[in-house]
């Protein structure tokens, strides 16, 4: 366990560094792009990206996670069969993007979707040819190499976006930047592990293992997309594109703790648990859950800072067009807390071969969003919609907490204690902020001009 602990610590450091550097780059480019491009373009690209992400998640069978957790993950017949499935899937996704472009253009009253969705969707074909060496590196927890690779890709694609946006401030700056990123990732991925030379293969046993594990991953990720992206899909119909762009800016900041948690859970926690999956729930309970608790506390502290002071980020960094995001951000940040608790548990269940709980969790979240988000908007306008979104991961967390209980790895008591500490800390910080004359994070909510005017 000692050597594995060192790997986990090193992996966590690289993961946090990667995320921090990524977000700094994204923030810097975002600040520049919001001055070069109008909010409508961000809203449009957010919708298109949601559709493409949805196609990817609807067809996900866990090829990467399977290479990481399967004992045969380093055998050529296994990972080449996985790569073949991945390539076929990429072409199928692009064909689907062609099919959905026309009905979506009609539904959202955006004729640009007829050409925009297929062009952006072609990135799925490119990604299908990515080397399985990326998953192999994650299996080995060689996160330093992966981090430098991902940062290099991001710097290049963001540079392309900024140059194009400066020369011609249109949606093409965002589109071409994303395609450049996909192409570079595909090419360089095959050079990271020269010993892995992907070729087309179709071994029956490997296919059986991939599909057997992947069926619940398929259901879970399909439900995950509908649940996690339902806010944009529904709000894209209820709100104007500029307001959707403002919401996207607020969510970008509020989502920071969740994204860090996701990176840690799948790049560090998941590979670690996968190595000890055959030793039973005792190892999980005694060795893994205490580390999970430490990570959750750290993410909770970051979340509390965003909830208490996130509005200053919006008002100080963005132009007045985006200032309505100031009151949205703290509410959305608080809503990320059950999301963090959920995502720091679900990978544990996947690693021990129980992805069914994740599928149930996402189904519960989807049901909540479909029912309560439109209802909240109808009753309370934009404010009601933001509140509904902030509460949307409570059903998901309860589902995985039940799953952890069934697998004899109770988490709910620890999570309740941490939640009480988090709420107490936030109340104290907000009281101090108000006392020194800085007001409250949602003070700008008073400027909301009509519940549906935004």
Explain this structure to me?
The chain is mainly alpha-helical and 454 residues long. It is globular, with a radius of gyration of 22 Å. The chain is built from 19 helices and no strands. It folds into 2 domains: 1-228, no CATH class; 231-439, no CATH class.
Give a short summary of the structure.
80% of the residues lie in helices and 0% in strands. The chain is mostly helical. It folds into 2 domains: 1-228, no CATH class; 231-439, no CATH class.
Secondary structure elements and pairings:
Elements: H1 2-36, H2 39-58, H3 63-69, H4 76-107, H5 113-121, H6 123-128, H7 133-139, H8 143-167, H9 172-192, H10 204-228, H11 230-238, H12 241-254, H13 256-275, H14 281-317, H15 325-343, H16 346-351, H17 356-390, H18 394-406, H19 412-435
Helix pairs in contact: 1-8, 1-13, 2-4, 2-5, 2-10, 2-12, 3-7, 4-5, 4-10, 8-9, 10-17, 11-17, 12-15, 13-14, 13-15, 14-15, 14-19, 15-17, 15-18, 17-18
């Amino acid at each position: 366990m000692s050597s594995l602990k060192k790997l986990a610590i090193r992996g966590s450091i690289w993961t946090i560094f990667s995320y921090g550097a990524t977000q700094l780059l994204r923030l810097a480019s975002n600040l520049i792009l919001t001055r070069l491009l109008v909010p409508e373009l961000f809203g449009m690209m957010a919708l298109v990206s949601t559709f493409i992400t949805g196609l990817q998640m609807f067809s996900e069978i866990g090829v990467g996670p399977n290479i990481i957790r399967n004992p045969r993950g380093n055998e050529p017949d296994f990972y080449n069969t996985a790569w073949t499935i991945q390539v076929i899937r990429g072409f199928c996704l692009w064909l689907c993007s062609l099919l959905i472009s026309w009905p979506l253009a009609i539904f959202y009253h955006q004729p640009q979707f007829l050409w925009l969705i297929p062009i952006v969707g072609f990135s799925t074909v490119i990604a299908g040819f990515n080397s399985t060496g990326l998953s192999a590196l994650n299996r080995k927890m060689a996160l330093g190499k992966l981090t430098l690779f991902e940062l290099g890709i991001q710097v290049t694609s963001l540079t392309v976006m900024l140059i194009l946006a400066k020369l011609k401030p249109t949606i093409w700056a965002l589109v071409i930047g994303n395609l450049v990123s996909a192409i570079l990732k595909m090419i360089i991925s095959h050079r990271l592990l020269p010993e892995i030379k992907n070729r087309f293969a179709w071994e029956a046993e490997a296919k059986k293992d991939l599909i057997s594990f992947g069926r619940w991953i398929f259901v879970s990720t399909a439900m995950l997309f509908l649940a996690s992206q339902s806010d944009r899909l529904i709000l894209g119909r209820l709100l104007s594109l500029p307001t959707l762009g403002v919401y996207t800016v607020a969510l970008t900041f509020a989502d920071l703790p969740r994204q860090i948690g996701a990176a840690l859970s799948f790049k560090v926690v998941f590979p670690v648990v996968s190595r000890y999956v055959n030793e039973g729930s005792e190892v999980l309970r005694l060795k893994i859950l205490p580390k999970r608790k430490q990570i959750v506390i750290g993410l909770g502290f970051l979340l509390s800072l965003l909830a208490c002071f996130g509005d200053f980020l919006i008002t100080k960094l963005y132009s007045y067009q985006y200032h309505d995001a100031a009151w949205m951000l703290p509410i959305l940040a608080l809503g990320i807390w059950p999301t963090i608790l959920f995502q720091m548990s679900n990978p544990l269940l996947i690693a021990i071969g129980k992805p069914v709980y994740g599928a149930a969790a996402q189904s519960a979240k989807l049901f909540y969003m479909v029912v309560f988000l439109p209802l909240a908007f109808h009753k309370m306008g934009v404010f009601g919609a933001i509140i509904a979104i902030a509460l949307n991961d409570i059903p998901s967390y309860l589902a995985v907490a039940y799953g952890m209980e069934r697998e004899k790895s109770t988490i709910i008591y620890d999570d309740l204690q941490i939640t009480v500490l988090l709420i107490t800390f936030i109340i104290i910080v907000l009281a101090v902020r108000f006392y020194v004359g800085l007001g409250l994070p949602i003070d700008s909510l008073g400027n909301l001009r009509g519940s549906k005017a935004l």
